[in-house]
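Thread amino acids onto this structure.
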């Protein structure tokens, strides 16, 4: 309006003066706008021309005053002034009316929008008049305070603030009238009498009105209280942890924890209770806070069949977990204590079990005034606090044990030191080399030396050589074998020249891991006792018999003393035996007459000894050698009886065991070869008289060694026992089955001809092949049997054994799982093989074995790529012996291991020699036998060979059979992986003729597949061989392996392999095996 009037005035000023009044003109009080500084009264006094127009718009009355000015009068004639002023006033009035209408319309629209915002605001809004009475409010204001809108209107701040805020309100309210904005937190009083924390922003709206925005501060206040509460809880945990460090037991800790929980944790009351096992009640041990009267006469049971046993405290102890009651008065489990809770103002409680050594030990109970005070975070904090207390209790226990142990150790060390320094016996310590680590004063006095002279020295420094050596030998029993040596008598020449006899006990000192690190010896001077032992019969008899049980009775035959051996033999402790009659160990086996004769002998001769059967405490009887001697005083009256007991149980058992082992196999309990020989000799002697036949079978389990190697010797032993039981059940009772060792059995068949022997052998093969159940798996075996007969095949037992053994060898050669009768041809063959075996052993010693090298070539370029080392035997008489003749003998005799290692070492050193000669060396392949590969030392043997000749592993290739590869054991996997990582190439030899499973190709790190010559031989004319070779090459390429074809002898075979993509060629077509000096030419 003012802007509009200023613009309008700019058009008519300085000709017309304009005033706008609120209602009737009342001077400056009602003036809303004036275009000039000259007042209306002044203009009236100057008799200026004036026009007054009333204007009513939107229910509000205004007055417009128009006056002429000197400038107007100077240019307008008098007769025209009044009409012109009137016209100007009318126009301005009309314009003002239009503008006012537009403004009122806009104001109405703005007020409508404001009212919508006003009523939908999230905070309460009230408008107060100058007397601070509420004249308007939005919807939220009465809702916050619980009043209706009509009730809230006309109320004043004093009607809604909390009484606690009256004094503050009287101070703050006048400040608001100054026009300054006011922002503060106030506690208001709701209609229902409850309080409401708020934040109020109040300011003056205009001269007549104030506005206040009321925001509910409950959530913020609650969050502040929660932060305050959590801060104090964390402080409580800190205080508790600091207290744990300072304190040493729960009597100090528990009261402090209760005080901290109340003063810092914000609890009303806290107490810790422990179980009284006599009453099954949980009794308070510490408490703090308000409402401690609750604990007076408190009854909390641990039994859940009573109301007092179903509360949070007992449940926490039973269940070993926190029990939280967030509405104490509403929870049925706390009903027995509701009256007390109401009296003390508890809204919530928590019971937290305190553990000690992992078990519930006590319960921390805390009470809060607010319902719902325990949320997950607070429960977690209190649980952590209790966990710290549990840790402290365990730490208290550990500290007590540590102090007790330290105290006991200190006392023990003090006692030992006192004893060792004050006893008359010599006490000393020696290290594992026999050097002195310690010696007490009697030792130093004996030799007249100081301690420094003894430490680090051995007995040779103080004793003659013979005595020193004897002591060292005796010491070795302790230091090397861990024995405790008693009753070692040694004559020592003292520094005074006197000979002193010492009786010594020596025992080993061990570390925690059981290893011996020193010897402790106690040597007592028994010189005087030795002089008196002839007169002190009792003492002599005790010491002479101390390894046996000794019992001493009084004249009334009541036991007054027993030694340790007696308690060990009889089972009665010393306390149990004292005061008893020695007859407590009587077995009842001997009658009254026996004991009467024994006592007659004792009374008459003062001595009795003999063997009798007695009974131990556990009821078992045992054989015993008893010697009883009478001890008389100077008057000849009996004062004591001394009995010495020797337990003969082990002796008797040893006798029986020796007798059994001399004739029977301990594993199968079958007769051994010695017993079989005795029986066979008897059977042959009988056969000679009756002209009847005798058969002897050698039974050998085929490949049984694999069972032991793959499944273990325990499985192998169980298998042998099962087999022995089976055969025993099915064989004729007149036959004798014997185990001579390993998996070799011998069957003696008296009065049995060839037909009957063959029938028995067939039955045995059938029995052996039946599956054996070993745990959860079944094993199937086969056997080879050799049969010899008396008198056709032998004249005596020795020849019969040789003939059966030869027949067994033929059975193995015939494919195993069969039986063979002895023939003269077998004997000759066996002799020849034995002769070859002996010559082969000599060949190793005489270095008759040599290596030839067969070259290997690239199938595409023809370039030399490698060689295979092949062993040959240069026999001094027969010349070059083929491996086909001597390798089977080597495998059967076990020489293959030694030969295989020789070949590997020889080949490695030959490659190294060629390399040192500057030749372009190529990798050399060495064949491995299954037996050689399975040796535990195989990997180290390879490494040693390479190191000895200083050869790079990449120049050595090892060829393994499919049999080795199929051994899918962890050792095989690890060993092949280790060889590969070492840098050695690995090849599968004779691929395709072994096992059908190809799974191992995925598992092992193989570099090359060697195609067997049996497939190569048919290339060019056998479609099946061609298909197999093509498949092998394709598979190898798919797996990333190289291929080498063996036995290539024709151009046709070479062309096919080249076209099929084979990588390398080996065979007579390109090169035969040649000695090392000839192979050099190929590398040049």
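Threaded sequence (1084 positions):
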């Amino acid at each position: 309006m003012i802007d509009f009037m200023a613009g309008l005035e700019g058009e008519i000023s300085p000709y017309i003066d304009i005033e706008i009044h609120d209602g009737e003109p009342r001077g400056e009080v009602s003036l809303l706008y004036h275009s000039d500084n000259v007042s209306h009264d002044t203009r009236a006094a100057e008799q200026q021309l004036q026009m007054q127009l009333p204007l009513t718009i939107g229910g509000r009355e205004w007055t417009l005053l128009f006056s002429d000015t000197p400038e107007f009068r100077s240019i307008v004639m008098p007769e025209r002034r009044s009409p012109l002023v009137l016209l100007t006033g009318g126009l301005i009035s009309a314009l003002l009316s239009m503008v006012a209408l537009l403004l009122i319309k806009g104001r109405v629209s703005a007020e409508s929008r404001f009212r919508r915002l006003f009523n939908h605001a999230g905070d309460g809004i009230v408008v107060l008049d100058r007397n601070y009475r509420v004249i308007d409010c939005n919807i939220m204001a009465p809702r916050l305070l619980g009043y209706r809108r009509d009730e809230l209107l006309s109320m004043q701040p004093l009607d809604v603030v909390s009484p606690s805020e009256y004094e503050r309100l009287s101070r703050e309210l006048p400040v608001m009238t100054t026009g300054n904005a006011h922002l503060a937190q106030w506690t208001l009083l709701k209609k229902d009498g409850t309080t409401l924390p708020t934040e109020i922003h109040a300011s003056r709206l205009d001269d007549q009105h104030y506005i206040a925005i009321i925001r509910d501060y409950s959530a913020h206040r609650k969050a502040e209280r929660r932060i305050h509460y959590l801060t104090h809880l964390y402080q409580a945990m800190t205080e508790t942890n600091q207290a744990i460090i300072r304190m040493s037991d729960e009597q100090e800790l528990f009261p402090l924890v209760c005080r901290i929980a109340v003063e810092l944790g914000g609890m009303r009351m806290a107490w810790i209770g422990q179980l009284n096992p006599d009453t099954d009640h949980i009794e308070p041990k510490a408490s703090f806070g308000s409402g401690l009267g609750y604990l007076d006469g408190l009854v909390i049971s641990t039994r859940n069949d009573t109301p007092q046993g179903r509360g949070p405290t007992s449940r926490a102890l039973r269940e070993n977990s926190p029990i939280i009651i967030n509405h104490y008065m509403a929870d049925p489990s706390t009903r027995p204590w509701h009256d007390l809770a109401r009296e003390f103002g508890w809204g919530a409680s928590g019971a937290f079990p305190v553990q000690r050594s992992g078990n519930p030990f006590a319960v921390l109970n805390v009470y809060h005034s607010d319902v719902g005070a325990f949320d997950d975070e607070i429960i977690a904090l209190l649980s952590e606090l209790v966990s710290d207390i549990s840790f402290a209790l365990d730490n208290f226990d550990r500290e007590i044990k540590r102090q007790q142990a330290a105290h006991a150790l200190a006392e023990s060390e003090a006692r030992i030191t006192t004893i060792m320094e004050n006893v008359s016996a010599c006490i000393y310590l020696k290290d594992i080399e026999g050097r002195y680590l310690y010696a007490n004063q009697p030792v130093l006095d004996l030799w007249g030396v100081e301690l420094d002279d003894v430490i680090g020295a051995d007995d040779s420094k103080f004793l003659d050589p013979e005595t020193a050596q004897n002591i060292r030998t005796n010491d070795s029993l302790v230091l090397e074998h861990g024995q405790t040596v008693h009753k070692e008598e040694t004559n020592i020449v003292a520094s005074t020249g006197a000979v002193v006899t010492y009786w010594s006990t020596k025992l080993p000192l061990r570390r925690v891991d059981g290893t011996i690190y020193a010897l402790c010896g106690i040597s007592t001077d028994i010189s005087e006792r030795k002089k008196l032992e002839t007169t002190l019969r009792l003492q002599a008899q005790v010491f002479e018999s101390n390894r046996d049980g000794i019992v001493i009775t009084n004249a009334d035959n009541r036991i007054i003393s027993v030694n340790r051996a007696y308690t060990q033999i009889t089972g009665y402790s010393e306390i149990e035996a004292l005061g008893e009659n020695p007859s407590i160990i009587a077995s009842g086996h001997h009658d009254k007459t026996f004991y009467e004769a024994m006592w007659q002998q004792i009374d008459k001769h003062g001595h009795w000894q003999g063997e009798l059967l007695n009974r131990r405490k556990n009821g078992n009887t045992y054989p015993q050698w008893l010697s009883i001697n009478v001890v008389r005083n100077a008057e000849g009256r009996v004062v004591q009886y001394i009995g010495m007991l020797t337990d003969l149980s082990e002796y008797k058992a040893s006798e029986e065991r020796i007798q059994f082992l001399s004739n029977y196999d301990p594993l199968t309990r079958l007769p051994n070869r010695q017993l079989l020989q005795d029986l066979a000799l008897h059977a042959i002697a009988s056969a000679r008289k009756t002209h009847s036949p005798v058969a002897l079978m050698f039974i050998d389990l085929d490949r049984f060694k694999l069972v032991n190697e793959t499944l273990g010797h325990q499985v192998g032993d169980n298998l042998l026992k099962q087999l022995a039981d089976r055969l025993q059940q099915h064989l004729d009772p007149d036959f004798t089955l014997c185990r001579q060792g390993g998996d070799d059995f011998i069957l003696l068949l008296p009065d049995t001809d060839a037909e009957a022997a063959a029938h028995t052998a067939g039955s045995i093969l059938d029995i052996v092949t039946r599956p054996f159940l070993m745990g959860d798996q079944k094993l199937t075996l086969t056997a080879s049997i050799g049969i010899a007969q008396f008198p056709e095949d032998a004249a005596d037992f020795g020849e019969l054994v040789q003939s059966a053994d030869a027949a067994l060898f033929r059975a193995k050669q015939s494919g195993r799982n069969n039986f063979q009768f002895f023939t003269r041809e077998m004997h000759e063959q066996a002799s020849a093989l034995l002769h070859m075996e002996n010559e082969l052993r000599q060949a190793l010693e005489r270095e008759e074995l040599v290596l030839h090298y067969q070259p290997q070539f690239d199938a595409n370029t023809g370039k030399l790529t490698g060689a295979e080392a092949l062993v040959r035997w240069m026999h001094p008489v027969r010349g070059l012996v083929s491996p086909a003749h001597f390798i089977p003998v080597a495998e059967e005799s076990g020489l293959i291991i030694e030969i295989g290692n020789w070949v590997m070492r020889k080949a490695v050193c030959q490659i190294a020699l060629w390399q040192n000669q500057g030749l372009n060396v190529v990798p050399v392949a060495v064949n491995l036998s299954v037996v050689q590969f399975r040796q535990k030392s195989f990997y180290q043997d390879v490494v040693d060979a390479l190191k000895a000749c200083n050869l790079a592993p990449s120049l050595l290739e090892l060829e393994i059979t499919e049999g080795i590869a199929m051994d899918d054991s962890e050792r095989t996997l690890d060993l092949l992986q280790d060889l590969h990582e070492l840098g050695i190439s690995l090849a599968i030899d004779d691929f395709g003729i072994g096992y059908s499973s190809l799974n191992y190709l995925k598992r092992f790190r193989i570099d090359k597949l060697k195609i067997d010559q049996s497939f190569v031989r048919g290339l060019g004319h056998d479609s099946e061989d061609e298909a197999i070779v093509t498949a092998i090459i394709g598979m190898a390429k798919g797996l990333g392996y190289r291929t080498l074809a063996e036995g290539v002898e024709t151009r046709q075979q070479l062309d096919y392999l080249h076209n099929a993509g084979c990588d390398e060629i080996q065979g007579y077509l390109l090169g035969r095996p040649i000695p090392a000096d000839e192979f050099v030419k190929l590398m040049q």
